[in-house]
Amino acid sequence: MPDSSMSQRLASLPHLSKPALCELWRRLFSKEPSRAMRKALMLQIVAHRLQEMALGGLSEPSCRRLHQLASAFEADPNAAVSTRPPVKPGTRFVRQWTEPVHVVEVETEGYAYKGARYKSLSEIARLITGTRWSGPLFFGLKHKQSNQSREAQ
Q: What's the rounded Cα separation, in Å, for the pair 36 and 52?
């Protein structure tokens, strides 16, 4: 949480003229702001940068993930991007269903279960249960959404 001097500095930003805000931008980013950028947007970006400098920025894993997402959307703006972190090859999922324990191994291109290869965890969950299951839900990678949280969306 920002200290009082940071709070005061942030509160004073809207009172800056556009030329003063541009000068602060140059000091913070070591480059010129876009001439087309509206003052309101500049204020938000400068405020974020000041807080980032005072409190720290994003973690390295978060930065890597943002770069991955940017690359995916640059290649295909309509790309469906998973919000789940990737599971590394060699990871094993263990799930007891009825009596037996079921072990699935993550491979580079899919999953191995009982000597066969599958493209999705859902295929394996269907084999095990005999019903349509979400594979990530069945193996505990995703949690079932409650009715209350669904209604809030």
A: 24
- Three-class SS state of 107: strand
- Strands 110-113, 92-96: pairing is unpaired
Distance separating alpha carbons of residues 89 and 13, to the nearest angstrom: 49
Q: What percent of the chain has pLDDT over 90?
A: 54
6-34 pLDDT per residue, tens: 889 999 999 999 999 999 999 999 999 99
Q: Which of 104, 86, 85, 84 is nearest to 94 (CA)?
A: 104
Among 66-75, 83-92, 144-153, which stretch is predicted with the lowest mean pLDDT? 144-153
Closest CA to 124 of 143, 84, 97, 87: 97
Which amino acid does the sequence have at 74? Answer: E
User: By C-alpha distance, which of 141, 116, 97 is closest to 105?
Assistant: 116
- CA 22 to chain centroid, in Å, comes to 31
Residue whose structure tokens are 């949280």: 149
Alpha carbon distances (Å) from 53 to 2, 40, 48, 49, 61? 11, 20, 9, 6, 18
Whole-prediction pTM: 0.47
